[in-house]
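S., here's the first fold you wanted:
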Amino acid sequence: MIEKGVFPGALNMAVDSLMAEWAVKMNAVLFRFYGWERPTVSLGRFQKKGGINVPDWIDVVRRPSGGRALLHHREITYCLAVPRKVDAGKLSVLEFHRLVHSLIRDALVKAGVPAELSSERRGNTMLCFDAPSRYEIVLNGVKVVGSAQFRTAESIVEHGSIVLKQDVELLKTIFGDGIPPLKGILDLYDVDVKTLEESILAQFEKVFGPSKKIQLDSSMLKESRKRSSLFEVRRR
């Protein structure tokens, strides 16, 4: 497990992209939680920039993964990188997605949050949380976890957002008035965030084995900073 850090959005995306390479070099499954230096909108790798109105005080980045736009604000953000040679690395896109979300769902249920995996459905706005698609995590039909995946020849990476509180007015400013009523986990349930993170990690350890904490050392951070410009769309 890479120790939790708080970084600018483009640096976070660079670290996530490099985890695909580091997992192979280390011959290890890598996992991290991380925070955002300031509120940030991330666009999917192939998503067009038009159609959203992001205030000047919010950063904009492009993810190495696909999917629709996310506002990273009051959330738990995670990234998992798995070498293809391990069992989970042989799963299809949908199977891997189901595995990751099943583990997070189980952690939420243990924390007293009656989360479920969704059946297939899709929203029609630029916003990732507009509606769940197959195997995403919902509370009373409302999507509370959004994730995206990218693959290389040697690894699979999935990263995502577990929303703690939704700022609906800010979402309307960015994505328009057509978004549905959205809630975060802490809008509905009293959950200790640190305990939830520990529970999520424990669920991942059931599949991938005991974790060992490592730090982003100076060489890893240097490599990440060099790559971060690839993901920066706009910085405040």
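And the second, which I think is the more interesting of the pair:
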Amino acid sequence: MAAQMIVLVFCVAAVAALPADTVISKLNDGPRYQYVSSGEGPKLVDTWLTSSSMARTARYAPDTENVYHLFTRQNPTISQPMLLGVPSLIAANFDPSRSTVVLIHGWSSSATSDFVVNLVPRILAAADVNVIAVDWSAGAYEPNYYSVVANNVPLSGSSIGSFIFWLNLSTGASIATYHVIGFETGAHIAGLVGRSLGGLIPHITALEPPRPGFNLNSNAFLSTDGIFTEAMHTNAGVTGLVQPVADVDFYPNGGTTMAGCRWWDWECSRDRAYQYLGESILTGGFTGVLCESLLEATSGSCESEETLNMGGLTAKFGSSGIYYLTTNEQSPFSTG
């Protein structure tokens, strides 16, 4: 009897020691735990999707939880919120005859992020357009479950695409007038928005698309997601993707550590992406030199005479390639 009790206790202990959280998928081919930049600083996160994180994903309902904040020159500081499928909430100031710029924030963030706060006034100062800041914080704010956020990315991308389709159908606006800009995790969502709309969005800009969870992931940004796609790499190889992903990829200062940022300050280099874009929208001035290879771009050894301006609100249809440029340490960042 004593022997049987010992065996029973051993079996219970063995079962208790088994992993309770089953791994469903590995989001990329890298190590399971990786550092990712967030709105709260760098975090070591789990990039594997498990049964518990999948259960958390099931709670996110982007069609009802994503909120779309409209800013125009008529309401530049106080937004008019819209919801998918609610005609009574179509913003009064939305003008279907104008171009529309859509901003998509990243992980552990919201529509009040520095990315949105920096770009909205600059866009409206440069052009009389509709600016829609997407708030997908219901799916983005999972500070301890990065794999949940990565799994929420395609859900949000598809839902934002549905919102644009519905808004155009309801107001008569045309998809030909859209420019979608995504920052950090939002960069991959921006691509998926375009993909969900058949690649018909004229202009998509990916700012510092992240690497953890998206290296070799089918939900990562693709050059074919829009008619013209542009990417800016400012923390490549650390928290950002190194490889080119768009029709045109810019690698300021080699793409990894930005001028004026310390090598260990990932947020500084990451945030330079939207800071450069904001400045380019108002003053231009960021001139990239065409590179023959990624190695040339990351080492700054490009010697071509062919140049292209980085950023701005105008799509560079027909352009392609990898470009290098240098910036100043402080604003104004453009060297001319």
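Why I say that: The two ends are 86 Å apart (CA to CA). Residues 146-171 form the longest helix (26 residues).

Talk tomorrow,
H.
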